[in-house]
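WARN no homologs supplied; continuing
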Amino acid sequence: LINKQNKTTGSLFQQNTKAKDLGTESGAENKSRYLVNAIHYVHQNAWKAGLVKKIEDWPYSSFPGYCGLRNDELCNKDLMMSLTGYDFSSFYNDSYNEIDGFDEKDFL
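OK structure emitted
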């Protein structure tokens, strides 16, 4: 009813979304780093909020798939590798590190 009245769509609490160009043109290294940082940031959320003791304990995460603790199709490691050149052998340890050049507003 409110959407119809205001001629809007979606959730009443829908926020404006942001998009980042992660293409491979100019600045590809920074864009790749941003994508890797964004994935680590998302995986760290429940852990940093104190909802779990370890990142891998959050049951709604693709983290176990990315670090090889679970064999599933929630993540596409090949795609991430092709976009970023990321070496997954360090993914688990990297996930527990502070994010380089982290500015939380970049992810919000």
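The radius of gyration is 17 Å.
OK
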